[in-house]
Every structure is written in C-alpha cells, then in structure tokens.
Amino acid sequence: MRVLIADDDPVLRHALKAQLAAWKYTSVMASNGKHAWRALQQTDPPPIAVVDWNMPGIDGIDLCREIRSTPSLAAMYLILLTGNQDQKDVVAGLESGADDYITKPFSWDELRARLRIATRIVGLQQTLAARVDELQEALANVKRLSGLLPICAYCKRIRNNQDYWMQVEQYLAEHSEAEFSHGICPECLHTQLSLDES
Amino acid sequence: MTWTPAVLTERLGGDEHLVRELVDIFLAEYPKLLHAVRTSASQGDGPALRRSAHALRGSITNFIDDGPTVTALALERAGEESRLDDAARLFIQLEREVEELATAMRSFHGNRPCAS
User: Fold this and answer.
1) ipTM of this predicted complex?
2) CATH class for domain B15-110?
C-alpha cells in the first residue's frame, strides 16, 4: 500500500520513510503542501496520506479541504499530524476533512495501528467500488422493458421507435431477455377447429 | 534535560543506524531553524516567531519531550499572544538548551559502535 507523507520537518520525514518501509508501506514524500498537491495530481495517487498541519505554502488543513473537494481524490484516507493538542484544533482538523488525527510527539506503535485502520478502510472501499462497477456492468447488460407502449387495439402489434408495427413476441424478444416457444391455448384450439370444420 | 539515545532507538524498533541518520539530519538543520527564531524574536514579529518556534519544536520533539521542547512551546505561545517582552529571555534559554542537546548528539555520534 502506498502512503503520501507530507511534512516540512526533514528529521520526521526520514523517520517516517524508514518506519513505513519496515512496515511494508511504500512512501511518496513531499516536503510541503504544494509538493504534496502536485504528487496527488499524478495518475493513481496514493490512497492514504499522512499530512502535517503546519507547513509552508498550503498547510495540512487547506490540503485536506482541497483533497475532499476533488472528486477523484475524495475517497483518500487522511491522517492529520500536528503539534496542536487543543480540543478545538482536533475538531478543526477533522472538520477540514481528515479521517484521523495524531498529535506530536506520537508513539510509533500508535501510528502503525492507525495505518492498519487506514489500510483496512481503503481495502473495504476498493472492494466496494469494484462491486459497484460489477453491478453497473451487469445492469448495463440487462435489457429493460418499461414505459408506455403503443399497441394496436385490434391486431395487438406494437409500434417501435422507427414507427414500424411489430409482432408482440418479436418486440418483447428484442427488448427483454424473454424467449418464446409457440403453442396454442385451449380456447384458440377450439376456435381454430370450429373454423376448419366450417 | 536529558537526551537518551537508547530510548529513541527502542522506539524506532532498535534501529540505531536510523537514529544516527536522524541525528545527522537534525545537526545539519537546527542552526537554520534556530536562526529563524532568533530573527523573528529580534524583529518583534509575533506570527513569524510562532511559526519558527513551532518548526523548531517539531524537529526537537523527535528526540526529546522536555527541556528545549517546553521552551520552544513557550516561545511559540509568546509569538501567538504577541508577548514579545518574554521572547528575548526565552530565546536565550532555548538557544542554550538546543546547544546542550546538539552537544549530547555529537557525543553520541562520535561514539560509533565498532564494526563487527
């Protein structure tokens, strides 16, 4: 799993890169908000980001807002990293669009546990998105029969979009998954036999 | 204030090589961070003092929770609240504490383990 790290502190950036590698994550590094935003414009951006609040240029709060307002990035899992420990800061951080919030100094075990949660959520989202795609594909393959159909009151033919009057079974076969096998009902059998005898 | 490399090494899963790399980076970076705090404090620029003290505190926090971390936070708040009279006194204290930390780091750095 790839993780974007955005922090202007070179010491922490190096430590994060080394620790994430030890935990089998691949890091994409950014030293400020502007570089992070540029990294997210690439095709297939990382699905998880650990973002420092205080960075020069675009700060972590603005970066979270930008990510959330961009449809292609809206599903990213965002962990905001900050030295601000006040409750109002935690609320402001989460309201900016962050999914989680870690205050410095943090425990590496805590970060690892929170990354596991992020990985699980991202995995569930990806499974769900794949399932929705499958269902949409299946739905596109199902022929739909709905709406108001113009039918002749006498011969029961149906008029198609090309103004052509079709046999009802032909119309249904073209607009649904139904197939027809031909037979004769007892009433029609009786009528036909009477006609034949006369 | 006591910096104990063994605590950081343990927190980083016993990776002493990584601790030495982090110390290298800090020793290269802290003079710039300290200079930014000194400049903003001497110019009486509250917002710049808050930002620069915050950046220095973030870097120090990677190694130690007390001493210069606490003083940097006090400077950060002084900048935020524009209490610039306190800034000069706090900066002198911060500079001394950061240099003590750097000295301890250089001592640790010079004490490399023997190659096996």
Assistant:
1) 0.88
2) mainly alpha
